[in-house]
TrEMBL record:
Stored InterPro entries: AAA+_ATPase (IPR003593), ABC_AA/LPS_Transport (IPR051120), ABC_transporter-like_ATP-bd (IPR003439), BCA_ABC_TP_C (IPR032823), P-loop_NTPase (IPR027417)
Domain ABC transporter, chain residue ranges per copy: 21-262
GO terms of molecular function: ATP binding; ATP hydrolysis activity
Species: Celeribacter indicus
GO cellular component, as recorded: plasma membrane
Protein name (Swiss-Prot/TrEMBL): Branched chain amino acid ABC transporter ATPase
Length: 264
């Protein structure tokens, strides 16, 4: 597999690299109701990109279309230059674009270690190979240990998922998502419902796991977006009203009025 760094190096001398995800004119109607209209999003490889907007703006609908759970009624989704519009969730995931909840449903009565192991087995297609040679299972265990260390859950390896704090459960979800080795990770409100100290821990975690990966996240917490994200697309009533850095979008009067208000 070609690494992110190699791909970036492959970009012709000085030219802007092609985006990993290029969404153009994306639209979705539910009967007569237009939930998403003419949405363009260009996600650069290696970036952390946020999709923000008030309740009902269409963020979840866009994520569902990107991850193949919902078919667009208009527009085009290109992943690494290939048209994937209308592809199903499994096809999209196989290409390397993974939505966190897609494989992050954790099993409450399995331990942290077992949950990550199941995710790895699923990826390796080992799930039904109970006769796997020990060496193969040892390799899996080594990778589980690496992933738990990466998300800071090594000390909780034997804790049942059900007994984890809310924040730590989200970290376990991220570990099971990373087990599938995504190139582009779609994170759906990763900080939702978290206590302040967990938010900081997950911000650090996302920053760490973004090394060599691209992240597109829906996030309501604007201080998280400001600290973490390279680019931001703002949706309102299904349409993009601004796109750029935090400084750029927060200076946009339409965004201030629609969303950021006095926090900008
Ligand atoms: N299956 C559906 N059928 C009809 N309308 C829908 C459907 N799914 C979403 N909508 C409508 O589309 C609009 C966008 O919804 P969506 O959930 O994408 O917004 P959102 O930005 O994710 O909101 P929130 O921040 O509250 O999660 C809303 O008005 C919603 O009621």
């Amino acid at each position: 597999m070609v690494s992110t760094a190699e791909r970036s190096r492959a970009a012709p001398g000085g030219a802007a690299p092609a985006p990993i995800l290029n969404v153009s004119g994306l639209g979705r109607r539910f009967g007569a109701f237009v939930a998403v209209k003419g949405v363009d999003i260009r996600v650069e490889e290696g970036s952390i990109h946020a999709l923000i907007g008030p309740n009902g703006a269409g963020k979840t609908t866009v994520f569902s279309m990107l991850s193949g759970f919902l078919k667009p009624t208009e527009g085009r989704i290109e992943y690494r230059g290939t048209d994937i519009t209308g592809a199903g969730p499994t096809q999209v995931a196989r290409r390397g674009m993974i939505r966190s909840f897609q494989i992050s449903a954790t099993f409450a009565h399995l331990s942290v270690h077992e949950n990550v192991r199941v995710a790895l087995q699923r990826k390796a297609g080992l799930a039904y190979q109970f006769w796997s040679p020990e060496s193969r299972l040892d390799r899996l265990d080594a990778r589980v240990a690496e992933l738990l260390a990466e998300v800071g859950l090594a000390a909780e390896r034997d804790t049942l998922a059900v007994n984890l704090s809310y924040g730590r459960k989200r970290m376990l979800e991220i570990a099971t998502t990373l087990a599938v080795d995504p190139d582009l990770l779609l994170l759906d409100e990763p900080m939702a419902g978290m206590a302040h100290e967990d938010v900081e821990r997950v911000v650090e975690l996302i920053r760490r796991i973004s090394d060599g990966r691209t992240i597109l996240m829906v996030e309501h917490n604007l201080s998280v977006v400001r600290n973490l994200c390279d680019r931001i697309t703002v949706l309102q009533r299904g349409e993009v009203i601004a796109e750029g850095s935090y400084a750029q979008v927060s200076a946009n009067p339409q965004v201030r009025e629609a969303y950021i208000g006095t926090e900008a």
